[in-house]
Amino acid sequence: MDGPVYRFAPSPNGDLHPGHALSAFLNQEAAHRTGGRLLVRIEDIDGERSRPVFVQRILDDLDWLGVPYERPVRRQSEHLAAYRAALDRLNALGLTYPSFASRAAVKAAIAEAEARTGVPWPRDPDGAPVYPGLDRDLDPAVAAGRMAAGEPHALRLRMDRAAMLAGPLAWTELGAGPDGRTGRIPADPRAWGDVVVARKDAPASYHLAVVVDDADQGVTEVIRGQDLFFATAVQRLLQALLGLPEPVYRHHRLILGDDGRKLSKSAGSTSLRALRDAGASPADIRRMVGL
Ligand code: GLU
Known about the structure:
By secondary structure, the protein is an alpha/beta fold. The chain has helices at about 20-35, 55-65, 80-90, 105-115, 140-150, 160-165, 205-215, 230-240, 270-275, 280-290, and strands at about 5-10, 35-40, 75, 95-100, 155, 170-175, 185, 195-200, 220-225, 250. Glutamic acid binds near residues 10, 43, 210, 224 and 228.
């Protein structure tokens, strides 16, 4: 049997920060301890936020940290055909629908429902409003016509049907969730509503690409930040629907900024580069993230 396979999967929408360093170090340690392989995957299907310039900067940062990884580095933007095939499978199962609604229309529908009922609209585990189902019941012929005419649309999962078809799901958690749960965790994908499986500008979404890639790359253990703990439910669901193997998961604590919020590239948190320029060594970064 082949040994364990780990991956570090940054999105090139900014420079790495200490939270990424913790992920990279933990993946490195696990690969070293088990004689496993460490792969790097660049998650660059988000056309609005990905910037090619960050790819090399991320790889340079890993070299500076002293985290060795296998080449070639996989870039999601080079594997669109694999995501398309997975989408075809979901479509064939009748589990997707095109949604043409703009962000403004979604916001307006939610505001209208809240005003009408006086009840706050349900939120997903990340705190974002659950998609209100616009276009879910569109006449299939009308939807097909609008797609054929080139109208921009995302593809969304019919969550109720999908969750019913898949049946009860769980994942094995070797780390812990933000609530401390560990072991076999029941997956609750319904809390996320009709998630996007293909963005308006790409034949994939974050969730879809991650499960296809983890399977294609033979990833056996996913080590990543706790901010993705609840998202694992959606990923388990897609794995079940697509007949993909189930890796085990190890979610680790987040590195918080001085303001107590999680570090994020988009929020311009202190980057590894800035720390290095200020004289920090890789050993300092290790200490900084509590290793
Ligand atoms: N690309 C994601 C991020 O940078 C990580 C995805 C994952 O590890 O599953 O937050």
